[in-house]
Amino acid sequence: MKQNFTMRQGALDGVEVFLGVAQHRNFRRAAADLGVTPSAVSQAIRALEKRLGAVLFLRTTRNVGLTEAGERFLARAKPAFEELVAAGAAARGLGQRPAGLLRLTVPRAVMPVLLEPIIASFLKAYPEIGVEIASSEELIDLAAGGFDAGVRMGQFIAADMVAVRMTPPFPLIAVGSPGYLRRRGRPGTIADLGAHACMRLRRSNGAIAPWQFRSGNKSVEAAVSGPLIANDFTTLMAAAVRGMGLAQVPSPIAMGAVKAGKLVVVLEDFAPMAPGVFLYYPGRHQSAPKLKAFIAHVKANTRAMMRGVAAPVYSQ
Predict the structure, then answer these.
(1) pTM of the full predicted structure?
(2) Which residues, including other chains, have CB under 8 Å from residue 272's CB and lie 6 or more apart?
(3) If I label 242, which of 50, 258, 275, 280 is the partner at 20 to 30 A Cα–Cα?
(4) One fold for both 15-96 and 170-274?
(5) CATH, domain 170-274, list 3.40.190.290, 3.30.2010.10, 2.30.110.10, 3.40.50.1000
C-alpha cells in the first residue's frame, strides 16, 4: 500500500484570515492588517469554505456580511483562537525567562545533605519558579515521568544524559552503633561480616545489592545477611543508629551521625569509592530557562557543597 507523505490540512488553516475579515467586514482592510494581499485573503477564505462545506460570507460589491454558518463559526472560533494565542504567549514566556514549575526526582538521602541548602536560595533568586521534588529511590525515566531533571549517584545515570557533578567521589562506609559493636564485636576483615547482622539494600530492579569493598586494587562483593532489607540508604542508616546491625551507606549521609557519636565506621580500609552525586537531565538543547537557571545555581554552589562532603569522617 502506497504511503501518503503529505501533511493533512490543519483545522486552523484560514481561521485567522476569517476572523480578520469578520472583524473588518472588508477583505482589503483584513489583508492590510494581516500583511498579505487581498487575493491571498480571498483564496484563504475560499479554501476554508470548501473545507467546511459552507459559505461563510455574503459578498456584494460594497459590503461583506456573515451568513448564518459564518455567524455560528465566528461565535465558537473567535474565543477558541484567542485561547490559542494566549496559550502561545504563555508557552513563549516560559521559553524566554526562568519561570514555571521545576520538577526534580531525588533520592531521599540526598535531600538534607545536598538539596535543602540550595533550594531556598534558588527560590529566593527566582521568584517566578516553583520547585516540586519527588523523593524516590527508583530510576525514573525523566521524560515519561514529566521531570525536568534528577539527582543520582553517578553509576546509576544513563550514558545519554547530561550530568553536572554535585559532589566529589566519596567512600561507601560500613557503620554500626557503639552499642551494637559492644555486643557483637567490631569486624576486622570482610570475612568477619558473616557473624554480623548486616542491613541490605533492595535496588529498583528488585535485586538485593551485595556489599561492595576494595581489597588492594581489587573490587570485592560480599553476600551478607541480616534482619532488615530497605530500598533507601536513609532507612538503613536509621536502623544502624538504633543498633539493629551494620549498614553500608554513602559517607556524606552518615557524617552527622558519626560526628555525633551515634555511629562508628568499621572496615574503613576496605571502603570502596563511589563516583559521587550528579544532577542529570536529557540534553542541552532541550533545557528550558528554569532548568538552565537551576543548573547555573547548582554550579555556583558546587564548591561550597563539595567542601561539606569531600572528606569522610571516621570515628577512631
Answers:
(1) 0.63
(2) 171, 172, 212, 213, 214, 219
(3) 275
(4) no
(5) 3.40.190.290
